[in-house]
Structures are given as C-alpha cells and as structure tokens.
C-alpha cells in the first residue's frame, strides 16, 4: 500500500467531525435544536467533501504528487458516508421517522427533491467506485463518473434554495465548484501541467 500514513491521516481527518458533533450533541452544546444543527453540518460536510474530492485531480496535475489520487476514492466514499448521515439525521430529527409527513414536507421544502437526486447520484458513484465495476463498465465508467459535476450542481442548488438571501458562504462554494469545472475542460486541463512547468506522469490515470 502506497502512502499509508497519508491515507490514515485523511481517514482520521474525515472521521473526526461527525464524532465531534455527536459528542457535542450528547453534551447538550448544540443549542436548542441540535437535530437541525446536525443536519446542517452534515449537509455542508457533504458539499465540502465533494469539492475536496474533485480538487484531487487538479492538485495532482499542479504538484505532480500522486498522493492526491491515492486518497481520491476514499474521500468520495467519505462524501457518501456524510450524505447518508445527513439523510439519516433528517429522517430521525426533522421527520421523526414519521413517513406519513413526507408528502407535506416535500411541498413545504421542495429543495429536498433536489437533495434526493444528488443523493441518488452519489449512491450510483459509491456503488460503482470499485475496481470490479471499473473493469466491467469499461469506458462507460468514466462517463458515469462525470455525473459528479451534475451532483455538485444539485448540491449547490439545494443549498442555494435553503440559504436564499445569505449568499456570502454559498458564493464561495459555487466559485470553487465553478473553478473545478473549468479546470476539468479538456484544453484547460491539458495546459495545467505545462503552465506549472511539469511533466504529466504517464502511469497515473486521472478522471
Ligand atoms: C435525500 C437527500 C437529502 C435530504 C433529505 C436533505 C435535506 C436537507 C435538510 C432538511 C437541510 C436543512 C434545511 C434547513 O436548514 O432548513 C439540508 C441542508 C443542506 N444540505 Fe441536504 N439533503 C439531502 C441531500 C443533500 C446532498 C446530496 C447535499 C450535497 C451534495 C446536501 C447538502 C446540503 C447543504 C450544503 C445544506 C445546508 C447546510 C447549511 O445551511 O449549513 N444535501 N438538507
């Protein structure tokens, strides 16, 4: 296994936040509505992890260090774990597992439909993120995994719908997302290593 300490460090850095928030909830330090705070933090965590995962390939191109690619899949799976926790805390703390309220909830909070589409996209990517699916799907795998940019768009739209008037924080995520999308465009992506005066290592596959 390459870069074991780096992989473990990334694992711990991603795992620590939900544990810390759970501890805060148990210690009664999340304010009067801890359930909602957990839903919000996990939602934001999902979006941030999505952006971090998408920045691994450009970072590898800019720095030439293959360590970024080594943790890309792990970060993508963490993003999925966060969205599962986000959805579960919504079901537990906002819905109270009362599924009969779902119809009213969807008309009251239509942004949930956008979030649910994003969740389904992340589920498809997580299920097919293994080597077996990569081999079986061949060139279709790459096409499928381009869905990640649509998922990012859905995540940003979902958040925009929630924050509405307070666009400051949202604009930062949207800007980073837009930048990552531009860096992904063929002619721009090809120029990155040249701009940095680096040669692209031929052994590393990038998305
Ligand atoms: C079935 C799937 C989903 C459901 C049911 C759901 C539900 C929710 C709910 C109820 C909130 C809190 C709204 C409020 O503060 O009033 C929220 C916030 C949020 N969600 Fe989701 N969500 C889902 C999927 C996603 C996905 C896929 C992403 C990201 C890619 C995401 C990112 C966010 C963000 C960034 C926030 C705002 C956090 C903040 O304001 O600090 N959610 N979501």
Automatic annotation (TrEMBL):
<dbReference type="InterPro" id="IPR013130">
    <property type="entry name" value="Fe3_Rdtase_TM_dom"/>
</dbReference>
<feature type="domain" description="Ferric oxidoreductase">
    <location>
        <begin position="47"/>
        <end position="154"/>
    </location>
</feature>
<feature type="transmembrane region" description="Helical">
    <location>
        <begin position="170"/>
        <end position="189"/>
    </location>
</feature>
<keyword id="KW-0472">Membrane</keyword>
<feature type="transmembrane region" description="Helical">
    <location>
        <begin position="147"/>
        <end position="164"/>
    </location>
</feature>
<keyword id="KW-0349">Heme</keyword>
<feature type="transmembrane region" description="Helical">
    <location>
        <begin position="109"/>
        <end position="127"/>
    </location>
</feature>
<dbReference type="InterPro" id="IPR022837">
    <property type="entry name" value="MsrQ-like"/>
</dbReference>
<dbReference type="Pfam" id="PF01794">
    <property type="entry name" value="Ferric_reduct"/>
</dbReference>
<comment type="function">
    <text>Part of the MsrPQ system that repairs oxidized periplasmic proteins containing methionine sulfoxide residues (Met-O), using respiratory chain electrons. Thus protects these proteins from oxidative-stress damage caused by reactive species of oxygen and chlorine generated by the host defense mechanisms. MsrPQ is essential for the maintenance of envelope integrity under bleach stress, rescuing a wide series of structurally unrelated periplasmic proteins from methionine oxidation.</text>
</comment>
<protein>
    <recommendedName>
        <fullName>Protein-methionine-sulfoxide reductase heme-binding subunit MsrQ</fullName>
    </recommendedName>
</protein>
<comment type="similarity">
    <text>Belongs to the MsrQ family.</text>
</comment>
<keyword id="KW-1133">Transmembrane helix</keyword>
<keyword id="KW-0408">Iron</keyword>
<keyword id="KW-0288">FMN</keyword>
<feature type="transmembrane region" description="Helical">
    <location>
        <begin position="75"/>
        <end position="97"/>
    </location>
</feature>
<keyword id="KW-0812">Transmembrane</keyword>
<comment type="subunit">
    <text>Heterodimer of a catalytic subunit (MsrP) and a heme-binding subunit (MsrQ).</text>
</comment>
<keyword id="KW-0479">Metal-binding</keyword>
<keyword id="KW-0285">Flavoprotein</keyword>
<keyword id="KW-1003">Cell membrane</keyword>
<keyword id="KW-0813">Transport</keyword>
<keyword id="KW-0249">Electron transport</keyword>
<feature type="transmembrane region" description="Helical">
    <location>
        <begin position="37"/>
        <end position="54"/>
    </location>
</feature>
